[in-house]
Amino acid sequence: MRIVRGEPQLENAGGDPLPKVNLGPSHVPNGAKMALREDASIILIKQGGLGDYILMTPALRALRARYPRALIDILVSGDRAKEFLQHYRIFDEIAVMPKELLKSSAGGAVRQGPTRLLAVRRRLHGKRYDVAVSFDHFIPEDASFFSALMIATGARQRVGLDCGTTEGFFDVSVPDCGFGVRHEAEYQMAVAEVLDAPVIDLQPSVPIDEEARDLARTRIATFVGDASEGPLIAMHPGCFHAYPARRWPPEQFAATADRLHARFGGRLLLLGGPEELEVRKKVRDALHSDIPCQILCGEDSLLVTGAILKECDLFIGNDSGLMHLAAAVMTPTIGIFGLSNPRAWSPFIPAAPARARAVYRDLACRPCNYVGLHSGDQLGCQTRDCLIGLDVESVLAAAHELLSVPKGDVGGKNS
Amino acid sequence: MTHSEIRDKMREIIASVLDTPADDVPDTPGLPYQLFFDSLSVLEILVSMESEFQTTLDVGEENVLEILDSLDSAANYVEQRLTPTAG
Fold first, then answer.
1. Is A231 strand, coil or helix?
2. What confidence score (pLDDT) does residue A103 get?
3. Do B43 and A107 count as a contact with CB atoms less than 8 A apart?
4. Torsion angle of C-alpha atoms A256, A259, A263, A265, degrees rounded to 10
């Protein structure tokens, strides 16, 4: 079945319609593609967070479908990514190379950098790859680092996103026009397509198995409150620890939950990692209504968390991996954006685009993260008007839309 | 491989990495400074050496530039890596 490309719904605080992100056909420069041998050896490289890997899944599935007999390894930046990706059964090997180690190596002293980067080859057991495929943006501040990473794999050919910082470095490339010109998922799919791997199914996915589903239902079955009275609403008031500036105030999350409960009833589920427990408690403590509220401890695997999200009627969260996880299981998802770029990372549900919303304030200064060819300041400014000033009404408007549509009208609940 | 063959192969590797004619790679010491090695080119040379000579380089920051100082020093190092140890 061919999935029709959809468009995410972007709304600003004023409720004015915004130009929709163009999710048109992938762009391949001059039609140049690289078709590999069926038994090719391929190393994929992505240094990112959970959300980045989730958004890659359509491209990854396409690559494996196109090259079923190829050796496909991937180099990722952390153990959590490895643990998550191994469930997809796409890769022959998943190697972990800590981003911090590499970042301190590349572009550094001539003596130090290269010798540390040889460790990449050790992690890959000295395999000889036909092609290295990078899914990272070679923006000026990162180009040396990502170039070194690709060189260290020893691959004969290189494919990736080219924004002009690395002339002649790639054998075949996808034009990189900067963050936000296309959705990140679209960039990843374009990389797959330049390797002659057409992406038919655009929807990111999570391989939830029966065990994860059973665990999720057990968690929810023990939840206080009457399951028949209103929606199950999940909220993620935290985000990756390196990006504290992306957090909408916990009091605003609580106020949103109170207002939703007043209109729809229902129950509230607060999710996040164990390191975010305090912020979830702040939300719970700020509630004024009697909405049944459960805080999940954060010890569940990502698959179980995904299965829990699949049971929910609505997800509201900051720009984070959990937001992308909710979108991947096709739960109606609202992403709250301040300094980060919704045109690059809005909730992506192409199989049911009406279920996705990105909410943000229409300020001239935002986004200030990941715009064009710059990553920007992850800490944002001191006042953070983009998030502090984002009112509950804006999020409620999006939530009302998503909760007001009968489940069958959005393609069945999270089907 | 003989020392001379390894030396010639090193010349090819360095020329390829630096995108320069092989004849422009001198026989004299001081290659990193004469040919303006940067960290990426050093990395690429080391990776190419591992691939070409099918060996793992035990190279650290304390000796990498000494190993790559000349075609002879690089060839000597590769010879050591390729020579089976007694025992």
1. coil
2. 54
3. no
4. 70
Backbone angles phi, psi at A76, to 5 degrees: -120, 175
Tens digits of residue pLDDT in A123-158: 787 788 999 999 999 998 888 888 888 988 989 999
CB atoms within 10 A of CB A33: 14
Residues of B in contact with A121 (CB under 8 A): 47, 50
Q: Tell me how far apart the alpha carbons of residues A349 and A323 are, in angstroms, rounded to a whole number.
A: 11
The alpha carbon torsion through A123, A374, A376, A24 (nearest 10 deg) reads: -90
Cβ–Cβ contact B23 with A under 8 A: no
B15 Cβ under 8 Å from any chain A Cβ? no
Q: Are A335 and A344 in contact (CB under 8 A)?
A: no
| Closest chain B residue to A152, measured at CA | B47
Q: Tokens 């996040």 appear where?
A: A272
Angle between helices B39-53 and A143-153 (to 10 degrees): 10
Do B37 and A121 make contact, defined as CB atoms within 8 angstroms?
no
Q: Give the separation between CA A236 and CA A317, rounded to whole angstroms.
A: 5
* Contact check, Cβ <8 Å, A114/B62: no
- Span B1-10, average pLDDT: 94
Mutation for testing the A interface, residue in B19, B40, B45, B52 having most A CBs under 10 Å: B40
